[in-house]
Amino acid sequence: MFWAWMLATLARCQAACPAPLAEGAPSGDEIINACAQAASHAIQSAWADVPVLPADTLASRCVAMSEDLLGLTFGESACLCPEACAIILTMQGLTAELESTARCTQTLLLLVRAYGFLGESEPAWASPADGGLGELVYARREQCAKVRRVEIERLRLPRSQPFAKRGGLKGCSQASRSVAVLVAATPNQIHTYQPFLNLWRCYAVRHGISFILETDDTEVSPPHHRAPNWLRWFSAKKFLNYYEALLVVDPDQFVVPECWNVSIPAVLGAWAGGIFGAPDVATRDFGKPQTLNNGVVFIRSSPRGHFFLDLLLEKASWMQNIEKDQGAFDETVLEVLGLEAAARGEAGYDSECAQYIWPNAKGNHEIALYALCWWRTSERLAGQFGARRSSFLRFADPRLVDVNHVVGARGLSEPAVLHHFAGRSKDWDFMLETFGMARRNTGNCQRVFEHVDSRAAVQRCIPGGPPVMECEPPMLVC
Ligand SMILES: *[C@@H]1O[C@H](CO)[C@@H](O)[C@H](O)[C@H]1NC(C)=O
Questions:
Q1: In this structure, are 148 and 186 located in the same domain?
Q2: 451 C-alpha vs ligand 1 centroid, how far in Å?
Q3: Which atom of ligand 1 is least distant from the CA of 457?
Q4: Which pLDDT tens digit goes with each residue over 120-142?
Q5: Which of 333, 364, 337, 338 shows the shortest CA–CA distance to 349?
Q6: What CATH number is given to the structural domain containing 206?
Q7: Where does the secretion signal sit in this chain (predicted)?
Q8: Residue 457 C-alpha to ligand 1 middle, in angstroms?
Q9: Does the beta carbon of 454 sit less than 6 angstroms from any atom of ligand 1?
Q10: In terms of residue numbers, what domain contains 64?
Q11: Do residues 120 and 195 share a domain?
């Protein structure tokens, strides 16, 4: 008994926070004494799915206080009193209205951060009988997915535009519209990217298509908190109206020299019609154990092409998406396939996978859980890898033509039209070496064409091959 009392007292002493959290702010102890009870009540209300009553004066005082002090919990310096900061974040996270997915993910971030401040030792207020703060994070993720489901239910899939009406026939300005390669680079990266930008430009010249290099990084600069990866999608939205279609690509890729005569827009269905239909969005297909990669994406300037981009860009305001824009892209694919399935009269998509786009209580992303959900759902909605049935999205089969080969364990030995050095710390010099040209020569398309044509003269382009069957250990998903 005595020892238990001693230990409890010691723990209290360690948790004491007599100093004000900031100049003029209450001390940590004052916050804990005044609001731990209210935070506990807020957690219980969240479990019971009832609102924290604003009429409750204690709760409303603590909500107001937490609003004033929220900035301190995100400061550069660590919070002076972790438990008090957890209370502030909990009050803010649990009292906000969840009117949109974006808003919901903001509250999720607050709760993850609150839980992070508490570490292993959840104090009594944070773990009332019904369930603690940690489990509440998981519940909130599911709630955010439900908010998304409601948003999706309000959407209508735009009608598919008959191919004959697309482009071409409506007068001069329409007739001159073309496909453009779009690549985005933030100014600080241009020197690094330059040789690969040069190659993309020459590739566009060879195929008689336009070339757009976006360097205006306004959309990914403060006050926005967005990864630079988002830049190409914002640019695509800006330019889509002025072209027949865009081929959105990355600078960490190149078309394999002996395959330069293969037109990637053609492979993805830019000029298709007839039996192949004409997809509004097209990308390489990925099956287990690989996850989707959005490094090469074709988007048609059609109502459905715009619709896809809008659904994707909406997610730039969600917090903490898995793999930055990639998770948002994958989820948009499911949403569109779901709307298409529903339009066929089949069961649609209930945003089940969305919860795994966001971090768990520890702040970690669960990539494998998302991938499992994505594979299962995409198969249900559109069929298996290599045999998807969607008239909106084309998934190009890499066994025939691989237009986005993510270079993995077996390096460059796998046949493909395009090599993508995604993820991993990149060795840009090595990339250029494998392409086979010196940096200074890449700016001259005549030299580039000489290089690729001489390579093609001795080496046949093998455009596709067997897909990855196993990831590089210890990864189960790649
Ligand atoms: C590729 O296209 C160029 C230009 O159209 C042509 O000169 C060259 O012979 C072609 N190469 C191959 C391997 O088909």
A1: no
A2: 12
A3: 13
A4: 778 999 988 778 999 999 999 99
A5: 338
A6: 3.90.550.10
A7: 1-15
A8: 9
A9: no
A10: 29-153
A11: no
Both 310 and 188 in a single domain? yes
Instruction: Based on the fold, state whether residues 123 and 194 are members of the same structural domain.
Output: no
How far away, in angstroms, is 449 Cα from ligand 1 center?
A: 9
Q: How many angstroms is it from 297 CA to the middle of ligand 1?
A: 25
Number of independent structural domains in the chain: 2
The predicted-structure confidence for 1-50, as pLDDT tens digits, reads as follows 444 444 444 444 455 889 888 888 899 999 999 999 999 999 998 888 88
pTM of the model: 0.91
Residue with tokens 């970690």: 364
In sequence order, the β-bridge partners of residue 253 are 420
**262 close to ligand 1 (CB < 6 Angstrom):** no
Q: Residues 148, 227: one domain? A: no
Both 284 and 412 in a single domain? yes
Q: How far apart are CA 29 and CA 391, in angstroms?
A: 61
Q: Which tens digit of pLDDT belongs to each residue from 343-397?
A: 999 999 999 999 999 999 999 999 999 999 999 999 999 999 999 999 999 999 9
The model's pLDDT over 331-355, given as tens digits with 9 standing for 90+, comes to 999 999 999 999 999 999 999 999 9
Residues 40 and 121 in one domain: yes
- Concatenating the DSSP letter of every residue in 406-451 gives E--TTTT-S--SEEE--SS---HHHHHHHHT--GGGTT-HHHHHHH
Which tokens hold the place of 377?
A: 């759902």
Question: Within a domain: residue 82?
Answer: yes
